[in-house]
Specification:
four-stranded antiparallel sheet; 375 residues; Elongation Factor Tu (Ef-tu), domain 3; single chain; OB fold (Dihydrolipoamide Acetyltransferase, E2P); alpha+beta
């Protein structure tokens, strides 16, 4: 009775082993019957890659100034309107000139008198009728009179406001008769021939950016329009809190449609290059490493060879290959799940997936396809 129990127990222990061996044998036979795995493959080739960065920024004018005077008096005349475009040097405003004009006339008269006195003394000096000291004093008087005249004329110019550059004026803040003090704003002048676009990008992109890098911007204020420009400068420091760097780009504005304060979405492409690339679907990540199956044709039949690679950027379904492959390699793109390292493969032509030109069109419910016509 005990012997029967022992045999029964041995049979129960060995049964799973027998089953496993049978399954493995069946799998090997099935694999042998199936033959090499059919796969699709693609040759490694060079493609264009670049760093694409998106950011948000605000437009600022190329130049902006609050027009002020550095003297106090009442406004006598205005020569501009709100929102007017002006050229550099255009007179915009003048203060009362009566007193200053009189001072200028007096300084001119003094300077003319000093010139005449110098001429008389020079004629006498030619005849040795005056001393050299008197001649030198006359010359000093002329120089002093002319310096005083220039000072008075400068103060007179300060009473006239002119445009420092071409641009568009904002709302005027004064009227005729207004008493203005030094520093009071008369109007704001903006040069909008080109606009400055300031934005921030993570400092990790710092090596990819440089002056001259092209940017494209758009705004919801002007839907459907793109504006091209380029980076002008990068800030000289990284923000220690946000770990970002400020960038300033310039956008030409020949039609004067861009305005200061517009909120812009920026897209820029940096570090353009050509690199080897493979389809994204050929990649097999395993933990921190990345592998592909490339086709080894060194033997009688092509086999799959598992190869570790290092990847870079991803662009439109293709991944940049930094190392591990050459331009002569071919990688498996579809059917990877059916292959193992060193297993034989059969490369299929992708054209077989395209529909045949002569394939009959199927109708619906036995009806002929086409445009239905009523009776």
């Amino acid at each position: 009775m005990n012997n029967i129990k022992m045999r029964t127990m041995r049979q129960m222990l060995y049964a799973p082993i027998f089953i496993l061996l049978a399954v493995l044998g069946f799998a090997q036979n099935a694999q042998a019957q199936r033959g090499p795995a059919s796969v699709f493959a693609e040759q490694v080739a060079e493609r264009d890659f670049s760093v694409r960065i998106e950011a948000l920024g605000t437009l600022e004018p190329n130049e902006v100034v609050d027009l002020t005077l550095n003297t106090a008096d009442r406004v006598q005349s205005l020569y501009f309107d709100d929102g007017q475009r002006v050229r550099k040097g255009k007179t915009l405003l003048s203060l009362a000139q009566r007193e200053q004009a009189a001072l200028t006339e007096a300084a001119e008269a003094t300077a003319n008198e000093a010139d005449l006195q110098l001429e008389r003394i020079e004629r006498l000096a030619e005849k040795n009728a005056v001393s050299k000291a008197e001649l030198d004093e006359a010359r000093r008087n002329v120089n002093a009179a002319k310096a005083q005249l220039r000072a008075v004329q400068s103060r007179q110019k300060d009473r006239i406001l002119v445009a420092p550059f071409d641009g568009i004026l904002g709302f005027r803040q004064v009227s005729v008769g207004t008493f203005v003090r030094p520093g009071d704003t008369v109007a704001r002048l903006i040069d909008d021939s080109e606009m400055n676009l300031e934005f921030t990008v993570p400092s990790t992109f710092l090596r990819s950016l440089k002056p001259g890098t092209k940017v494209t911007a758009r705004t919801d204020d002007l839907p459907g329009m793109n504006f091209d420009g380029e980076i002008a400068t990068l800030d000289n420091a990284i923000d220690p809190v946000s770990r970002s760097v400020r960038v300033r780009a310039t956008l030409p504005n020949p039609e004067r449609i861009l305005m200061s304060g517009m909120f812009m979405e920026i897209m820029l492409t940096a570090d353009p290059r050509k690199s080897l690339a493979i389809p994204e679907e050929s990649i097999q990540p395993v933990g921190p490493k990345t592998f592909v199956f490339k086709i080894d044709k060194s033997g009688e039949k092509p086999v799959a060879k598992r190869t570790e690679i290092k990847l870079g950027a991803l662009d439109q379904g293709y991944v940049e290959v930094l190392s591990g492959l050459t331009e002569a390699d071919t990688v498996i793109t579809e059917g990877v799940i059916r292959v193992r390292d060193g297993s034989e493969v059969k490369i299929q032509d992708k054209s077989m997936l395209k529909p045949s030109v002569n394939a009959p069109k199927k109708g619906s419910g036995g009806m002929m396809s086409g445009t239905a016509r009523g009776n």
